[in-house]
C-alpha cells in the first residue's frame, strides 16, 4: 500500500513539474494574435505567427482567423475582439475608442459592454402591428415592429411619388415608348435617361423644401430627374454588400454635418431568392434570415448611436410573390396561330403590340384570344377595357392589348420562356399572394396599433407628413393615413361642391305631352302627389333621412345643371345636360324576400322635368342597339303602387341589351342578397363617362363626341356604391359607428364576351364579373365627379380611409 501511494505521489509530482515547466515555456512565446494582427514577423521570436504569410506557412496562432481575418470579412464584434487593437482593414471596430470614433460594429455595446439588443429592449418601442402577408415566414426581429400589409400598385415598379404607374410613366421594368421610339430596360442605357420618369420623387420633395435627402440603390435615385440628384446617392451595385450600405448609413448619421433628413435603402432580398427558389423554399428562408440580420444591424446600430427613439423608420415591400412552374404556361401561339407580326411581353402579365406600327386590329387580337378553351388561364383586354381598379391604361407606354394571367401561371409568346420555375409577381393585385408588407416604427407613429390594409400610393403623403413638408400633386388621398400618426400635421377637408342643385318643381300632375310613352294604369299620379304637394318639406326630410343617410353626393363638375327629385322609394339627381340621372340613392332593408313583380310596358314622363329637358320614349324605340333601363329598380318597392315612382323617364338610363342582363340581375338578385347579408344597405348608383380611359370624368365636349345619331349619351360605365354598418348587428338605418362599403365600376359594353360563361344563366357568372370590377369609392368619385359621405357625421380622415380602402381588403361574403 505504501509503495502504491509513493508511486502515485511521484507521478503527480512529475506531471505537475512538467506542467509548470511547460507554462514557463509558453509564457516566453506568443500563442495568440491578440494585439498582434499583421505585425511584421520576427524570425528570432519563437511561437506562432500573425502576419499575412502565416496561412501559407501553416504557423498561424490558433485565433488568427477569429481576431485578424474575420474583422475584414464580417461586421460584428465577438468576445475575442472586445478591446482589440485597431486594424485598419477592418469593416468595423471593437476597440475601446470606437464609440468616440463612430465606427463600432453595430453589436459592440451588446457584446462588449453588456447592453441589451434593440429587440430585447423593445418593450417601449413605438410600433404599429398588423398581419404580414408577403412572407411565409416572419423575420424574428421584425416581429417587434409594425406589421401592416398594403395593397400594391398594378405595376410592381417602386417609384416613390404617390402616383399610379400610368401617371408616373414607369409602367414596367421593360417598356416601349412610341413617341421616343425607344425601349426602357434595367440593363440598357435608357434607364438612366430622365425623360422616362414623370412625377416628383420623394427625395426631390424633401430637397425642394430645404431638407437633405440621401438614397442607397433606390429605383430612380441615380437618375437626374428634373436635372437633380439626391444630396447623397449611390448607383446600384450588386456587388456591394447590403450590410456595407447599412454601415454607411450609420456613419452618415454619426457625422452630423452630413446627416440627411430623409434616407432610403433598397434590399434586393428576399425578392431575388423568391424569384429563384419560389415563395415556399429553403432558399427564401435563408434570404429572410439574411434580411433579418441586416435589420438587426440597422436597429442595433441606431440604438448604439442613441438614435433609435429619434428616427422614424418605414420598411415596405412593393409586391408579393407567387409560385410558378414551367408546367403552368399558356402560349399565345397556341390560341391565335402565327405571332410573327406581334411583340409580346411574357410572364405573369402580358402585353401585346404590333411589330408593324401601322397595324391597328388590336380588337381582333383580343377576340382571337378570348375563351378558346375550357379553363383558360389568360384573358386579353384592350387597355380601355381594363378594370378601373388597376389604374393601368392612361399611358402611351401601355400596349393596346394587355393579358391578365391566372396566379401561378405564366403567359408566353410561343414556348419561348427561359425562366419559368421559382416565383414571380405582377398578377392581379387583388390576389392574396400579391399583397405586400409595411412596417412603421418611430416617435411619430401610433403605439402598438394594428391598422387595416391601405394602398401603396398613400405612402408618399405619409412620408411627407412625417417630415412635415407639403406633398407634390399625386394620386394619393392626403390624410387617409392620419390614424397611423400620433399627431397628424394635416387635417383634410371635403372637396368643395362646384355645381349646386337647381329646382324641378311639380307644376302639374298630368303631362301635357306623353313623349311617346304609355302606361296602362293612369293612377300613377297618386304617389307623386303625396310626395310633392302641400306637406312636401316634411316628406322630403323623412325621405332624405332614409335614402341619404350619409349625405347628398356633391357634384364636383363645374357647369353641371341638375335638380334633386324626391320619391318615396328613392332620391335622384336629374341632369339637364345629359337628360338622365346623375345618381340615384335608396335604402333597402335586410329582408331576403323575393321582390314583387313590375308592371309591364309602363313608362311615363316625369311631370317635374320640362319636356325640352327630358328624353322621350321614341328615342329609345328608334335607338337601334340601345334600349332603356332603370337606375333605381322599380321592383324594389314595399307596395305595388310605389313602383310607379320608378317607372318614369327621369329614372331612365341608356343601356346595351346584353349589359342589361347584368344590370337587372344585380338589381333584382344581388342587391336583395347583399341587403340580407349586410343587415340593410344604402345604395348609390349612376352612370359614368370615361371615353379617354384616364379614370376621370369626361367633359361635356368629350361626351358629345361619342353621342350617337339618337342624341343619347352612352355611358362607358355604371357605378354602384353600397354602404352598410361595419357592425353587422346594427342595421344600416341605425349605424352610429364606422360604416363599410363595397363599390363597383361596371364596364358598359355591347356584349358580354368578357365572361366565357355569358351564354349560361346569369346566376353562374354575373356576380363573379361584378366583383372582378370592384373598385374603391375614390375611383368612383374620380370617374363621376361626385363626392360621397360628406354629411355622414364622421371625421374626414375616417371617411377618406373608407373611400381609399383597397379592393383586396374587401372580401365577398358567401
TrEMBL record:
Domain of life: Eukaryota
Descriptive protein name: SMB domain-containing protein
Gene3D superfamilies from the UniProt entry: 4.10.410.20, Alkaline Phosphatase, subunit A, Extracellular Endonuclease, subunit A
CC terms in the record's Gene Ontology section: extracellular region
Keyword Methyltransferase in annotation: no
Domain SMB as annotated: residue spans: 29-72, 73-117
InterPro entries membership: Alkaline_phosphatase_core_sf (IPR017850), DNA/RNA_non-sp_Endonuclease_sf (IPR044929), Endo_G_ENPP1-like_dom (IPR001604), ENPP1-3/EXOG-like_nuc-like (IPR020821), His-Me_finger_sf (IPR044925), Phosphodiest/P_Trfase (IPR002591), Somatomedin_B-like_dom_sf (IPR036024), Somatomedin_B_dom (IPR001212)
GO BP, sorted A to Z: nucleoside triphosphate catabolic process
Compartmental location: Secreted
Ranges that cross the membrane: 6-26, 132-154, 240-256
One GO MF term attached to the UniProt entry: metal ion binding
Amino acid at each position: 500500500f505504501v509503495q502504491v501511494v509513493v508511486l502515485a505521489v511521484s507521478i503527480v509530482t512529475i506531471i505537475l513539474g512538467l506542467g509548470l515547466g511547460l507554462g514557463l515555456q509558453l509564457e516566453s512565446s506568443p500563442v495568440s494574435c491578440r494585439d498582434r494582427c499583421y505585425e511584421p514577423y520576427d524570425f528570432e521570436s519563437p511561437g506562432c505567427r500573425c502576419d499575412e504569410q502565416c496561412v501559407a506557412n501553416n504557423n498561424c496562432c490558433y485565433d488568427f482567423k477569429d481576431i485578424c481575418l474575420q474583422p475584414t470579412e464580417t461586421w460584428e464584434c465577438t468576445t475575442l475582439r472586445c478591446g482589440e487593437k485597431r486594424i485598419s482593414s477592418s469593416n468595423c471596430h471593437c476597440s475601446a475608442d470606437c464609440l468616440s470614433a463612430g465606427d463600432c460594429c453595430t453589436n459592440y455595446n451588446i457584446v462588449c459592454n453588456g447592453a441589451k439588443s434593440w429587440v430585447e429592449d423593445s418593450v417601449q418601442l413605438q410600433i404599429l402591428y398588423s398581419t404580414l402577408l408577403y412572407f411565409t415566414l416572419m423575420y424574428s426581429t421584425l416581429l417587434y415592429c409594425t406589421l401592416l400589409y398594403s395593397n400594391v400598385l398594378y405595376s410592381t415598379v417602386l417609384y416613390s411619388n404617390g402616383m399610379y404607374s400610368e401617371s408616373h410613366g414607369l409602367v414596367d421594368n421593360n417598356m416601349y415608348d412610341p413617341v421616343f421610339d425607344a425601349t426602357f430596360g434595367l440593363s440598357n442605357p435608357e434607364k438612366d435617361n430622365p425623360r422616362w420618369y414623370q412625377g416628383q420623387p420623394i427625395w426631390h420633395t424633401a430637397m425642394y423644401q430645404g431638407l437633405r435627402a440621401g438614397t442607397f440603390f433606390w429605383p430612380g435615385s441615380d437618375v437626374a430627374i428634373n436635372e437633380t440628384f439626391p444630396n447623397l446617392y449611390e448607383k446600384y451595385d450588386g456587388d456591394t454588400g447590403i450590410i456595407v450600405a447599412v454601415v454607411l448609413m450609420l456613419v452618415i448619421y454619426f457625422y452630423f454635418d452630413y446627416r440627411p433628413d430623409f434616407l432610403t435603402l433598397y434590399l434586393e432580398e428576399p425578392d431575388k431568392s423568391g424569384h429563384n427558389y419560389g415563395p415556399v423554399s429553403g432558399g427564401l428562408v435563408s434570404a429572410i434570415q439574411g434580411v433579418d440580420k441586416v435589420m438587426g444591424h440597422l436597429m442595433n446600430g441606431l440604438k448604439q448611436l442613441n438614435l433609435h427613439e429619434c428616427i422614424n423608420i418605414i420598411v415596405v415591400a412593393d409586391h408579393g410573390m407567387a409560385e410558378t412552374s414551367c408546367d403552368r404556361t399558356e402560349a399565345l401561339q397556341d390560341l391565335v396561330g402565327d405571332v410573327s407580326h406581334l411583340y409580346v411581353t411574357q410572364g405573369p402579365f402580358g402585353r401585346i403590340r404590333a411589330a408593324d406600327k401601322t397595324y391597328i386590329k388590336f380588337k381582333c387580337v383580343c377576340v382571337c384570344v378570348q375563351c378558346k378553351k375550357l379553363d383558360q388561364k389568360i384573358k386579353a383586354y384592350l387597355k380601355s377595357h381594363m378594370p378601373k381598379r388597376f389604374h393601368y391604361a392612361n399611358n402611351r407606354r401601355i400596349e393596346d392589348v394587355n393579358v391578365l394571367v391566372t396566379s401561378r401561371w405564366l403567359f408566353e409568346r410561343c414556348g419561348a420562356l427561359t425562366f419559368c420555375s421559382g416565383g414571380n409577381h405582377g398578377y392581379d393585385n387583388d390576389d392574396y399572394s400579391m399583397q405586400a408588407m409595411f412596417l412603421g416604427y418611430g416617435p411619430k407613429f401610433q403605439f402598438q396599433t394594428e391598422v387595416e390594409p391601405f394602398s401603396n400610393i398613400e405612402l408618399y403623403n405619409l412620408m411627407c407628413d412625417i417630415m412635415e413638408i407639403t406633398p407634390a400633386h399625386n394620386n394619393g388621398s392626403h390624410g387617409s393615413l392620419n390614424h397611423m400618426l400620433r399627431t397628424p400635421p394635416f387635417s383634410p377637408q371635403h372637396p368643395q361642391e362646384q355645381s349646386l342643385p337647381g329646382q324641378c318643381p311639380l307644376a302639374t300632375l298630368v303631362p301635357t305631352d306623353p313623349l311617346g310613352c304609355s302606361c296602362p294604369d293612369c293612377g300613377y299620379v297618386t304617389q307623386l302627389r303625396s310626395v310633392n304637394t302641400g306637406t312636401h318639406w316634411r316628406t322630403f326630410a323623412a325621405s332624405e333621412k332614409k335614402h341619404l343617410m350619409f349625405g347628398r353626393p356633391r357634384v364636383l363638375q363645374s357647369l353641371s345643371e341638375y335638380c334633386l327629385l324626391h320619391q318615396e322609394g328613392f332620391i335622384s339627381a336629374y341632369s339637364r345636360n345629359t337628360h338622365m340621372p346623375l345618381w340615384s340613392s335608396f335604402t333597402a332593408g335586410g329582408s331576403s324576400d323575393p321582390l314583387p313583380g313590375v308592371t309591364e310596358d309602363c313608362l311615363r314622363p316625369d311631370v317635374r322635368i320640362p319636356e325640352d329637358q327630358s328624353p322621350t320614349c321614341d328615342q329609345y324605340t328608334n335607338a337601334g342597339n340601345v334600349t332603356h333601363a332603370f337606375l333605381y329598380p322599380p321592383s324594389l318597392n314595399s307596395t305595388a303602387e310605389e313602383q310607379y315612382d320608378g317607372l318614369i323617364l327621369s329614372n331612365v338610363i341608356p343601356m346595351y341589351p346584353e349589359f342589361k342582363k347584368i344590370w337587372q340581375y344585380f338589381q333584382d338578385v344581388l342587391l336583395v342578397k347583399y341587403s340580407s347579408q349586410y343587415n340593410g344597405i344604402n345604395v348609390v348608383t349612376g352612370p359614368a363617362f370615361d371615353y379617354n380611359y384616364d379614370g376621370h370624368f369626361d367633359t361635356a365636349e368629350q361626351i358629345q363626341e361619342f353621342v350617337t345619331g339618337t342624341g343619347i349619351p352612352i355611358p362607358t360605365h355604371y357605378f354602384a356604391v353600397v354602404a352598410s354598418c361595419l357592425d353587422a348587428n346594427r342595421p344600416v338605418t341605425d349605424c352610429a359607428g364606422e360604416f363599410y362599403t363595397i363599390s363597383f365600376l361596371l364596364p358598359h359594353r355591347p356584349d358580354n364576351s368578357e365572361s366565357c360563361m355569358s351564354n349560361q344563366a346569369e346566376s353562374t357568372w354575373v356576380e363573379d364579373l361584378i366583383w372582378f370590377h370592384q373598385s374603391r369609392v375614390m375611383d368612383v368619385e374620380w370617374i363621376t365627379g361626385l363626392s360621397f359621405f360628406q354629411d355622414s357625421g364622421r371625421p374626414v380622415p375616417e371617411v377618406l380611409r373608407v373611400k381609399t380602402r383597397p379592393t383586396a381588403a374587401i372580401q365577398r361574403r358567401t
